[in-house]
Design goal:
With about 375 residues, this protein is an alpha/beta fold. About 25% of the residues lie in helices and about 25% in strands. The protein contains 14 helices and 15 strands. It is globular. Bound molecules: nicotinamide-adenine-dinucleotide and zinc ion (2 copies). One zinc ion binds next to loops.
Length: about 375
């Protein structure tokens, strides 16, 4: 089969690799119908994720069709169309039992395209299939559910739910990339009073307006703290999300918050940030951190079915799966291409979309 293979920092290829097979009885083999690229894939390609070894197939978000199941798989069958979560769950360990799949101790967690071969490929081996895939309702397209694999549950769980967004809240979101924009979409489910988007890129701030921001601040040349204070009678935001992953933006989020408010850190940090306890200790603030668990996928699916959430707004570019190399170039150059998410369509999906008879099976 063909797959997008990581060959070390700044090196990738669309290569012929061995077809995946069932290894453990809890595995399934899935044909990838629709996939996408994440900022984390770019981190791996920059060499920031040393545990991902050269030769690994990248990708951790996809919709696919089950081709084969292991002897122990009972809840999905060959032919089922499923959403593959970025986080796998063994279903048995202490953390999986409490819904903290991201912390799985039994071999799950973020493994696709990180510790094992991932989902930017024609086929993939899916461990713990019973606990890690979600059947896609027939009435929904792949594109309607694809972004429930990672960005939407991340922003919803680690941002909106950890930050307890409530009706009327002023929500400040630092970073308006796919995660910050997902936080805007899912925060709106709780009727905040005002959403303030803060970013250095005007193009991202324009997207933020489309995703529900009421106020945009370019903190490259505007004073975000002063503006938030002006909007909130000098008190500060009720909730602030950090959705960038650098020390400055974490420290900014902590400065924006009112006494008794909540700072929810979503960004992945590679460097230490300063916690200004000398200013914060009197202010009754709550700071949360988190790795996505994707336990909210079933809830988000219901919202897509009922039309209350439309994730297709992220799909700015479409490519055939075999053009994944070009899709990376577009996604990585977001400041020029204005890419939010690129959709990679397998040949079966393309056929279905063109109304032609789908052909081909697992070779
Ligand atoms: N906690 C989790 O489980 C989890 C899961 C997925 C992603 N993430 C992390 O969430 C963060 C955001 O992801 P993304 O895909 O949206 O990233 P992205 O890089 O596409 O977007 C980040 C945005 O931040 C803006 N930005 C950069 N520096 C800034 C600054 N100093 N002030 C204001 N804005 C600034 C950029 O212009 C960009 O629009 C990343 O750190 C990512 O790794 C966390
Ligand atoms: Zn991701
Ligand atoms: Zn587990």
């Amino acid at each position: 089969m063909k797959a997008l293979v990581y060959h070390g920092p700044d090196q990738r290829g669309w290569d012929t690799v061995a077809d995946p097979t069932i290894i453990d009885p809890t595995d399934a083999v899935v044909r990838i119908d629709t996939s996408t690229i994440c900022g984390s894939d770019l981190h791996i390609l920059r060499g920031d994720v040393p545990e991902t070894t050269p030769g690994t197939v990248l990708g951790h978000e996809a919709v696919g069709t089950i081709q084969e199941i292991g002897a122990a798989v009972t809840t999905v069958a060959v032919g089922d169309r499923v959403l593959l979560s970025c986080v796998s769950s063994c279903g048995r360990c202490r953390f999986c039992k409490e819904g903290r799949y991201g912390q799985c101790l039994g071999g799950g967690g973020w493994i696709f395209g990180h510790l094992i071969d991932g989902l930017q490929a024609e086929y993939a081996r899916v461990p713990f299939a019973d606990n890690s895939v979600y059947e896609v309702p027939a009435e929904l397209s792949d594109e309607q559910v694809l972004f429930l694999a990672d960005i939407l549950p991340t922003a919803y769980e680690v941002g909106v739910l950890n930050g307890h967004v409530s009706p009327g809240d002023v929500v400040a979101i630092v970073g308006a990339g796919p995660i910050g924009l997902s936080a805007m979409l899912t925060a709106r489910l709780y009727t905040p009073g005002r959403i303030v988007a803060i970013d250095l890129a005007d193009s991202r701030l324009q997207s933020a307006l489309q995703f529900g921001a009421d106020t945009i601040i370019n903190n490259g040349h505007e004073d975000a703290r002063a503006q938030i204070m002006e909007l909130t009678d000098g008190l500060g935001a009720d909730v602030a999300f950090e959705a960038v992953g650098v020390p400055d933006t974490f420290e900014l989020a902590c400065e924006l918050i009112r006494p008794g408010g909540r700072v929810a850190n979503i960004g992945v940090h590679g460097h230490p940030a300063t916690l200004h306890l000398e200013r914060l200790w009197t202010r009754d603030v709550t700071i949360t951190t988190g790795l996505v668990d994707t336990y909210t996928i079933p809830r988000l699916l219901k919202l897509v079915i009922s039309g209350r959430l439309d994730p297709t707004v992220f799909a700015t570019h479409h490519f055939a799966l075999e053009d994944t190399m070009a899709a990376y170039d577009t996604f990585a150059d977001a400041s020029k291409t204005a890419a939010l998410k690129v959709v990679l369509q397998g040949s079966e999906t393309a056929h279905a979309i063109n109304g032609r008879v789908a052909a081909g099976a697992l070779a």
